[in-house]
Amino acid sequence: MLRDNALEGNHFVVTGGATGLGKSMTKYFLELGANVTICSRKEDKLLAAADELEEQTGKRPFYVVCDVRKYDQVENVIKEATAKHGKITGLLNNAAGNFISPTERLSHKAFDTIVDIVLKGSYYFTLAMGKHWIANGIKGVMLNIVTTYASTGSGYVVPSASAKAGVLAMTRSLAVEWAKYGIRSNAIAPGPFPTKGAWDRLFPENLRAQFDEAGKVPIGRVGEHQELANLAAYLMSDFSAYMNGEVVTIDGGEWLKGAGEFNHLDAIPSPLWDDIAKAIKTNTKAK
Ligand code: HXC
Ligand code: NAP
């Protein structure tokens, strides 16, 4: 979407950048000329992703092992990434944990686990990065991956919904507070984009047959990774310099379909509309 080398001179940190959407966004950032540092818990995945991305793009991402729930490890990523590629210009909070479950079946530890990865992980990275940027007079951009249900809420993923709502509130709050330091904060709310991580935990095989994700989306399909990467590249770049505190939904219209009072009328076959129109006209004339 952006011109060649549009991100040259940038250095982004992407949490959870070795798999799924984080890897796809990292790939596009590299293709556009940015240096990227990826981090997550599992070194084998980081190494495999670095090899794969180098082969695909000709540019190797730097990686650092980090559990985003550990503040010292978060600070270490910033230190090591800066030593490797110099000034960090953008932070993409993408790491997450999630699974579907009736809430009453969750242990308090299960709830903690999701909230700690999603909310604590995001605010630890945001805080450490913000302190570093402010102390060193560096301007930067923060982008947080939330979900559409960060705004609407959703049953069966209540820890994730609670945590993502917190991340969204943080995004909007810091967009105002830290703008004076030249730090922008935005968020993306994706709808369904198939990844192994999400599908294994949210749409396991025995559910997939019963619930068609694409069928819930007005556009009639799930998202393509490049579509999300295009948006992320724009929001991480200076082309979006006047966007701050925004959450951009990219879901093919999925959440609005669930929200609109009469959207379920999609199910009415076209010929039946003649009968319905007739009935309505008769009723209203009778009055
Ligand atoms: C109930 C569960 C559970 C399940 C784990 N737990 N899975 N409870 N149902 N399916 C409980 C455990 O029993 C334990 O509680 C507690 O949660 C912690 O589990 P651990 O396995 O020890 O945690 P950990 O090793 O830290 O792994 C975290 C994880 C795992 C979240 C459970 O799935 C993970 O690593 N996920 C990372 C990737 C991921 O989730 N990606 C999907 C993001 S998708 P007790 O009480 O027994 O100790 C996403 C998309 C949203 O966010 C929108 C889509 C449209
Ligand atoms: P994914 O591949 O499972 O990505 C999650 C990443 O987070 C993994 O790379 C994982 O790596 C990392 N991670 C988990 N816990 C961590 C921790 N404690 N410390 C550091 N890293 C950790 O799933 P995805 O679908 O690409 O999700 C990416 C983002 O998109 C998430 O924020 C998710 O909520 C959001 N999202 C996805 C969809 C979708 O349809 N796919 C829709 C809406 C929003 P390790 O296991 O190696 O740590």
TrEMBL record:
The keyword Oxidoreductase applies. One of its GO terms (molecular function) is 2,4-dienoyl-CoA reductase (NADPH) activity. It holds the Pfam family adh_short_C2. Keywords: Oxidoreductase. InterPro entries: NAD(P)-bd_dom_sf, SDR_fam. The keyword Metal-binding does not apply. Gene3D superfamilies: NAD(P)-binding Rossmann-like Domain (3.40.50.720). One of its GO terms (biological process) is fatty acid beta-oxidation. Belongs to the short-chain dehydrogenases/reductases (SDR) family. PANTHER family: 17-BETA-HYDROXYSTEROID DEHYDROGENASE 14-RELATED, SHORT-CHAIN DEHYDROGENASE/REDUCTASE. This is SDR family oxidoreductase.
